[in-house]
Design brief:
Blueprint (H helix, E strand, L loop, with lengths): L1 H13 L1 H40 L11 H15 L1
């Protein structure tokens, strides 16, 4: 039994750098994914809040007087009929 422990320790020690590198990379990837998810959530919440606020604002209304255009078009149609 003791020899098995020694062999297992040697095997683990030989792969320790690779295992540590793998764990470190998994940690980095996990943090990156969580950061992107958090950023997407904050962006979505901000966009939703902006849309909600913007939709409740009063829109400016502009009135356009088309009398001049109507008169011009009427003169064109009357010129063609004569």
């Amino acid at each position: 039994m003791s020899q098995e422990k020694v062999d297992r320790y040697k095997k683990d020690k030989a792969n320790r750098k690779q295992q540590m590198r793998k764990q470190k990379m998994q940690g980095i990837v996990r943090k990156a994914v969580l950061s992107l998810a958090a950023l997407a959530l904050v962006g979505w919440l901000g966009y939703s809040a902006w849309e909600s606020w913007d939709s409740n604002r009063e829109r400016p209304v502009a009135e356009v007087n088309y009398d001049s255009v109507s008169d011009y078009l009427n003169t064109l149609t009357t010129s063609e009929t004569e």
